[in-house]
Amino acid sequence: MSTAARLKEHACAAIERNAAEIEAFSEDVMRHPELGFAEFATAARFGARLDRLGLPVRTGLARTGVKAVMRGRGPGPCVALIGELDAVSLPAHPLADPATGAAHACGHNAQLASVAGAALGLSEVMSELDGTVVLLAAPAEEMGDAGRYFDTAPHEGVEFPVGKAELLRVGAFDDVDMALLVHSGRGGGPRFSVGDSLNGAAVVRARFHGRSAHAGSSPWLGVNALKAATTAAHALDAQRETFPDDHDVRLNYLLSGDDGTLGSVPAVATLQVMARSRCTDGLRGAVAAVTRAARAGALALGARVEIDTLLGYLPLTSAPALDDIVERNAHRVVGATGATRGRHLGACTDMGDLGHVMPVSHPYSGGAVGGHHSVDYRVEDHRAAAVEPARYLADTVIDLLADGAFGARRVLREAGPRMSVPEYLALRRAMSNHEIWEDA
Ligand SMILES: [Zn+2]
Ligand SMILES: [Zn+2]
I need a labelling partner for 209 at 20 to 30 A (CA). Which of 161, 300, 345, 373 fits? Predict the structure, then answer.
């Protein structure tokens, strides 16, 4: 029997001995949902699990993040296992917190349990691994109401709207070489899938400022901000087919008159756009189109427009060499699923940000019912969503760090160079912008 096979048997036995407790932890987190950057109780629950393993635990990273380090017998690469702390803002969900509207409609509860479970297994075998394992609970994957980030950061000390960007900014990934996160899949999906790419996203808010006037007696004295905003929306729609097919651009917008009454010309109106694309160039192109459209609306009506752009997520591309190892181990645990590899999904994740800095893998588990972010979504089978991922996460770490960490070194070699953290932060800041435009 190879070293890795023997260590996997050991780790697996420890996880299975604690399977009921791992499932109960996933259920417990699901029943106590919290919103991004405010997941204090969830972070404490996760920290308590790591305490029991005797690990030194750091808390309060990017407000609520939790991190512990498990060291092997000698130096080597560092693999992070990540779980997300936050729930979705979805007050209509049956398990929503009545005070905050938070509900685990994205299944992040199972991620934390899978990381805690993998840690239990790995704690038995770390003395035979070459390298380090970081266990990390990350805040605020769901961007939620992006609009609130435009005027003032809603949380003290937070610069970016998503947790992993903040964790990168505060140096929480400085010692990490690669990262894995198992997300629960959609209801009716396969028990395991890997290798999907996901869109990036930016939010643009255009606030049109006109002039109010009596809508009946003297409308010519007004400047109709709502018509400027609808003109901008038409100008945006006119550009939809100008985006290259392979950029997978999606544009969703909300239009609102802020001070409208039927009796007066609206003086303020807002067009808010979520632009998504599978590549950074596509995101830049979509943001440029929104910006032109906003200026065009203002120009047509003689209004002034204030345009704020905020980068939400960078697109996700996972590392095939890392996906291969996770897939092999997952198939050993759950059997072959026949899932298609390498689909492109329209949703976003801040694992995309991390993937610009290091090799990442972002597989999906089974165990949930309903569609992500909908009122019927929840993890139902915690074994499929938490215990099975705990096993293949532990097995993957063993393949990466056993025998001189040959596996991890090969992943790093095949993934090639990535951005440095300062380069990533500069890109993120360059893609956010504030401008006031008015026809001279
Ligand atoms: Zn989500
Ligand atoms: Zn999610």
Answer: 161
Instruction: Report CA(16)–ligand 1 centroid distance (Å).
Output: 28
Instruction: Give φ, ψ of 222 to 5 degrees.
Output: -95, 170
Which tokens sit at 406?
């040959």
Supply 418's token pair.
């990535």
- Please tell me the distance between residue 141's alpha carbon and the centre of ligand 2 in angstroms: 7
> Position of tokens 């036995």?
13
Compute the distance between CA of residue 11 and CA of residue 438 in angstroms, rounded to an integer: 64
Residue for token digits 């998503």? 162
Return the pLDDT at 395.
Answer: 98
Alpha carbon 68 to chain centroid, angstroms:
21
The per-residue pLDDT for 259 is 66
H/E stretch holding 428: helix 421-430
The whole-number pLDDT of residue 153 equals 67
The predicted pLDDT at position 440 comes to: 76
Whole-number Å distance between alpha carbons of 415 and 325: 14
Determine the distance separating the centroid of ligand 1 and the alpha carbon of 287, expressed in angstroms.
23
How far does the centroid of ligand 2 lie from the alpha carbon of residue 183, in Å? 7
Q: Determine the distance separating the centroid of ligand 2 and the alpha carbon of 192, expressed in angstroms.
A: 16
The three-class DSSP label of residue 59 is strand
Residues with CB under 5 A from ligand 1 (ion): 106
Q: What is the pLDDT of residue 149?
A: 72
Q: From 295, 289, 51, 324, select the one nearest 180 (Cα to Cα).
A: 324
Which candidate, 103, 75, 107, 70, places its Cα nearest to that of 89?
103
- For the chain of 440 residues, list the mean pLDDT of each consecutive stretch of 10: 95 98 98 96 98 96 97 97 97 98 98 98 98 98 76 78 96 98 96 96 96 96 97 97 96 84 93 96 97 98 97 96 98 93 92 98 98 97 98 98 97 95 97 92
Q: Two tokens at 337?
A: 């699923």
Q: How far apart, in whole angstroms, are the C-alpha atoms of residue 285 and residue 278? A: 12
In 222-279, alpha helices (H)? 225-237
Task: Give phi and psi for 368, each to the nearest 5.
Answer: -110, 160
Q: What are phi and psi of 321, to 5 degrees?
A: -65, -35
Distance 86 CA to ligand 2 centre (A): 9
How many whole angstroms from its chain centre is CA 87?
A: 11
Q: Where are the domains of the chain?
A: 3-196+316-425, 200-313
Name the class of domain 200-313: alpha beta
Q: Which class does domain 3-196+316-425 fall in?
A: alpha beta
Determine the distance separating the centroid of ligand 1 and the alpha carbon of 145, expressed in angstroms: 13
